[in-house]
Amino acid sequence: MTTSKTLIRGARLLGGEPRDVLLDGERIAGVGTGLTAAGAREVDAGGLVLLPGLVDLHTHLREPGREDSETVLTGTRAAALGGYTAVHAMANTFPVADTAGVVEQVWRLGRESGYCDVQPVGAVTVGLEGKQLAELGAMADSAAQVRVFSDDGKCVDDAVIMRRALEYVKAFDGVVAQHAQEPRLTQGAQMNEGTVSGELGLTGWPAVAEESIIARDVLLAAHVGSRVHICHLSTAGSVEIVRWAKSKGWAVTAEVTPHHLLLTDELVRTYNPVYKVNPPLRTEADVLALRAALADGTIDCVATDHAPHPHEDKDCEWSAAAMGMIGLETALSVVQHTMVDTGLLDWAGVADRMAARPAAIGRLAGHGRPIADGEPANLVLVDPAYRGTVDPAGFASRSRNTPYQGRELPGKVVATFLRGKATVTDGKLV
Amino acid sequence: MNRHLISAADLSRDDALLVLDTAEEMARLADRPIKKLPTLRGRTVVNLFFEDSTRTRISFEAAAKRLSADVINFSAKGSSVSKGESLKDTALTLEAMGADAVVIRHHYSGAPHRLATSGWINASVVNAGDGTHEHPTQALLDAFTLRRHLSGVGRDLAGRRITVVGDVLHSRVARSNVLLLTTLGAEVTLVAPPTLLPIGVEAWPCEVSYDLDAVLAKSDAVMMLRVQRERMNAAFFPTEREYARRYGLDGRRMAVLPEHAVVMHPGPMNRGMEITAEVADSPRCTAVEQVANGVSTRMAVLYLLLGGSEPAQSAPRPDARTAGGPDTADRTEENL
Fold it and tell me: What is the pTM of this model?
């Protein structure tokens, strides 16, 4: 399955003019027209778009602890099928990734899988409990070289702990990725608080619970001169706050999930827990604001928040169901559908928001690089003309909790290359 | 009518009137020496109660038994459910036992909807109250009661002004009543402190007021909702006394109502909280009448959902008009 040389013929670089791209070993060895290379495996990429391999800042791989829903192997296979060459594995595993030992274990499992680089995220606080800082420096200095720290799933709601974490990670150029959710305002919350929650009688998760934490944290980051990253930003109000913080020149970055770019809380009327996610699906106005913010760069990147859950955790009452949806294998299609096909973003923009910027935020060398001679050969070939119906039966993820089942979405990952080696060819795992 | 009754929004005006008119026929049965019809003989109705509610459960039980259905009461407490069985497995069990209708009360909003639409079960599903969502048979019995007092049998509630007072935020009774009463032409006003109104209530097909005294004089009926005292601990209101002063119905306020107006309460009442004993015990209060009407209304719902006009089975039915011997209806109270 590996040849040392691969010649990709006639691919539209970042959606532009067709070019040939030669991969030699782990690197790109030439970009041009009419390239030849003796002994190279040729890939006919006519009509296909070539992008840098995608980078996900927010993936739940569930290992260790919940291997019934996902493992590093199954999750990275799903990532490769989705066009990703690097994913950041969130820390809310069992045990929590709050020590050098756990992050090194996850990192090593990723290396063994071979489908996608796995960059562990370290917990901010011990056990995600928001009380005591985890050994952030030990995780940063470990073989995993952790740079992104997050208690994702829980908010670092204590202002002093958040301040200290922001300050402390400056020593190794880290970033705190905040799951912005004021806990008291969201006790028992089941869905977005608004017209629909009132009618359905489900406890609301108000936008202000996200926005108030983001407002506090951008101010804290400015005060201590550190970087803060906002996970899965979901409301129009949050966009305004981030836009304001950026206008001040503060080091604030933000991500949006594919599902928040497409789905709204109207879907909760079905009471089908496949639409239950945290933060919850919001309104049409929020969706449009998020798309606009991703287009103008206020939101830096798309992150999947791929959250696998076993079938029984969704095959139940809404309020009893787990929060989260899988997204690695559908993210690029949703982004094409909501951003490219709507004219909001071109493919170069997609490369920026799904590869270059997340890699830069995560300080991930070797990913999200330009497609140029000498660069690492982390690449994805996309067929933007493809139209298909989402069928989770074909997913590589161990879980099936996708909200897109039966939905027609454009675009298909035809091939993924991780350091020159194909992990996906002809739309199938190698 | 639909095969299920999940939300009051499932009912068109004609559907609702059909239920109410059928309930009137059922009510006449109560005056007979033998209060029983053979209509649902051989049918099995399961009362699946995940939440304690003796009133609603016995009301449905009485309704099903008066229609000669076999009734199985399944209480979550002390059953396999309390040992962690999922709603799905419970549903599959009931399906295997041949339930024709499942009357479900559940602490989670949307659980009846899930049960009806998940493909786990073929039975008709009747929502007997789900979380803070809906309680459609309560709204039907309230409409039945209102019609008798305000517009007359056979009519809708066009132009009648109904004021619903109390914890709208957590009330399934309020949600179902707003939907059903407006379907029937009534003008509904919700009265509550702003903390006990849901975000988005302005989109509901009703008026909203924070001032009870301002709306009493033009109300044809006032429906008082139960307000749990413990809401105080989550700062929904400062104290019980302040709540009672601002939103409770006492004799002074009752005197402001038009002469023909009635006071309703779905029960159980918090005397001294949302309603004083003087009002609760007055002849204008329909709380007890509502309970009686509940049985007739639930009979009508089960009858219509289970196609009660068709014979349930081809077996001979001796003495069909007044039937209901011991062989027909008493295999009850099996605890699964």
Answer: 0.92
